[in-house]
Every structure is written in structure tokens, then in C-alpha cells.
Amino acid sequence: MRILVLGGGGREHAIVAKLAQSPRTSALFCAPGNGGTVFLGENVSLDIEDPQAVAAYATEHAIDLVVIGPEGPLVAGVADAVEAAGILAFGPTAAGARLEGSKSFAKDLMARHGIPAGFSEAFTDEAAALEYLDEVAAPIVVKADGLAAGKGVTVAMDIHTAREAVTECFDGRFGEAGTTVLIEEFLSGPECSLLAFTDGETVVPMAPAQDHKRAYENDKGPNTGGMGVYSPVPIVTDTEYATMIEIMELTAAGLASDGIDYRGVLYGGFILTDEGPKVLEFNARFGDPETQVVLPRLDGDLVDIMVATAERRLSDIELKWKPEWAVSVVLASGGYPNEYEKGRVITGIEEASALPGVTVYHAGTKVTDDGSLVNAGGRVLNVTALGDSFSSARDRAYEAVAKIEWDDMFFRTDIGAKAMRGRDAWKA
Ligand code: GLY
């Protein structure tokens, strides 16, 4: 099969690497791709949020399957256009992607289908939102309804901060995404991501993973796209895992009963509360960096799985997992998630990758005209290690990290450290 993957992050490098292992793959293209995908296929320049441009490229290049990584193209309707051109798309249509593209749509769906989540109120009027804040207590969460590149969520520890967040959402900085604002219950407990393949009828869960959203050690500092991750998650009980799967099944059934043909990855972002897992958010795609620990553990052919998902034959598929644990540490540009310098030469990736069980996924990297590999984004590399135990995977990941450098590189040294201390670490 000739396969086009849309996106250019660590997630897409991990997807491309897994697709490259399949005997069914004859050619791989990645738009825009990065300094890692370029060694596995052809990086192409394409406006990935323009559905017609993607469909035209796929038709001209005889693509058999388009895999849509990020949320932007999903919400824009790329899967719809690709399917209309008679080409298989992996990823939901625009109607399904609203689950991520509109938080109020997701909250409404959850409320109607009895899916456990925190309370939530949506506002299109600033004065009404501020008035509501007089009635609730902090901590409280303020969210822009639409896609805001991870910047539209404020966990306010006091009402003053919540009021500021409401005013900021309505001041236009998030464009259309901020014209509706949600005020939501603050849920307390460990976070856990559960990704599942679904063809709208069958739901095949993947292994749980736990991301680290904050920029600095001990979960301090601003929110980021994710600074490190591991899978499976040792602190998740069997009962919690079973409940999360039930919630994913309920969600897929709810989408189907609402007439939405949802095929692709359903990503449940959960909080493991004292009352059981509750949904924090849904995403309509693979997680980043969750994919960089989940796919290396997948013992199977990703092309088979994606094609079966797109063709509504997921009941034919049984997922198998390698017994190893996986830990991934994100290496970021100094200053991320704010301003940072680009173009710094990166060294040590070959030495790191030579360690047993280690794969270095590229995110914000590029190869310059003189052949140097440089940083080109905030999150630059994901150093993933597999190991026979959680601690050995973690040790290997950090051993590999120590071999890589560029001026101003930064990373968290405590990925997985809290989980090593057990569930009580979340009560401290
Ligand atoms: N890891 C968070 C996300 O993919 O949205």
C-alpha cells in the first residue's frame, strides 16, 4: 500500500516507523514530516488542513490510505474529502472530530449518554460566565470551547484567576475557539490516557499511558503538549481499566446512536477520582507523546489494524502487546512552551539509539541543506526505551537521554518518578 501520513510530530514519526515495519507498505509519504520521517519515506509539502488539497495529492500520487495524525485536519474535514475521493482514511470525519473540536459538543454527548465527567456549564456571554463564577468555588477549570493549540485551558486555583481566564477567552485571542467558554469542575486524582481503535461498532482498547503535561519537575510550570510518558500505568487498578473501557464503549455507542460514523482512534483523557474514572476530555486522534510508548509495545501490523478500522472490520482484529514496559522522555528546546531558539545542531542520536530497546523519535527537527540535524520546534525528540520492568525502561531512557545534546536542550528528570512511589504519591 502507498500510505500518506499527515503531521510532523513525534506521534507521526512513531506511526510512520510502525507502518514501515509492515510487509503491506510499499511507499510512505509524510506531510510535512520531520528529520526522522525523512529516513523512512518522503517528506512532502502540503497544506494538511486543506481537505481538497490533501485529496488531490492523494489521488495524484495513487495513495491507498491517508493516516491523519493531528486534530486540525480532522476537524477541517480531511477524512471526509479523502473518502469522497475513494481513498481509505484513518481518522474520523469532521462530524466525529467535533468530539475534540468542540468541548461543549463533547460535554453534551457525555451528559446525554450517562458518561461520568465533572459538572460543566457553557457560556457565550462574558457577563454571564463571570456571574456564574460568583456561585462556584475554586479550584475551577476554564476552557475555550474550540481548538486552541493546547493553550485554551486554565486550571484556576482561585476565583480571581478564573475570572481573568474567562476575560482572556472572550478577548479574541483564541479566535473562533474562544467564543464559547466552559466552566468546569476541577477533578482531583492521577490522569490516565486510554486510546482505543474503533470502527463505530467495535472498540479495541490499547494499553493505558500516563503523560506529564507540566513543563518542569514535580508537575510545576506551564502546561505543555506533554513532557514524557509511560505505558502501561502501574497505578491503574484492573477495576479502573475495566471502567475506562466501558466508558469508551459507551462513547462509541453514543456517537453511533447520534448518527455519527466514527472510525479511527478514540482517546479518552481520564482522571482516576475516588469515585472512579471520570472523563476530562476526549481527543479524536492518537495522543502525543502517548503514541511514542503505545505503538512500540504493539505486537502486530498497524496497516492491518488501520485498514480494518477504515473498512469497519475491526472485529477481525485482536491486539497483542509486547510484555515490556515503555518510558519516553521528551527533549525540548530551552524556553518551550514559550519562546525558544531554533537551528541548533543536535548530536548523540546514533549513540542513544544503539542502546538496547531504545528508539529516538523525532518531533521538532529538520535536516538542513548542509545535512546537519537541527532543532526546529518546541518539543524536539522523544527518547523511548523498552525494558523488562518499569524501572529498567526508565533507567534506559535516561541513559539514552544522557548521550544527546544541543545548546539549550531541556527535559524533565522525573518522568515516571511519581508512579514509582505508588498511588499514595498523588495524595501528598
Ligand atoms: N498527550 C496529550 C495529547 O495528545 O493531547
How many strands, what sense, and barrel or not for the largest sheet?
6 strands, antiparallel
Q: pLDDT below 50 for ≥5 consecutive residues: which ranges? A: none
The top-level CATH class of the largest domain is Alpha Beta
CATH A-level architecture of the largest domain: 2-Layer Sandwich
Structural class per helix/strand content?
alpha+beta
- Shape call: globular
How helix-rich are the residues, as a percent range? 25-40%
Q: Distance between termini?
A: 51 Å
Full CATH superfamily name of the largest domain: ATP-grasp fold, B domain
Tell me the strand percentage band: 25-35%
The distinct ligands, each listed once, are: glycine
Tally of individual helices: 14
Number of strands: 23
Quick rundown:
The chain is α+β, with helices and mostly antiparallel strands and 428 residues long. It folds into four domains: 2-94, Rossmann fold; 125-179, ATP-grasp fold, A domain (Dna Ligase, domain 1); 191-316, 2-Layer Sandwich (D-amino Acid Aminotransferase, Chain A, domain 1), CATH 3.30.470.20; 325-427, Glycinamide Ribonucleotide Synthetase, Chain A, domain 4 (Alpha-Beta Complex), CATH 3.90.600.10.
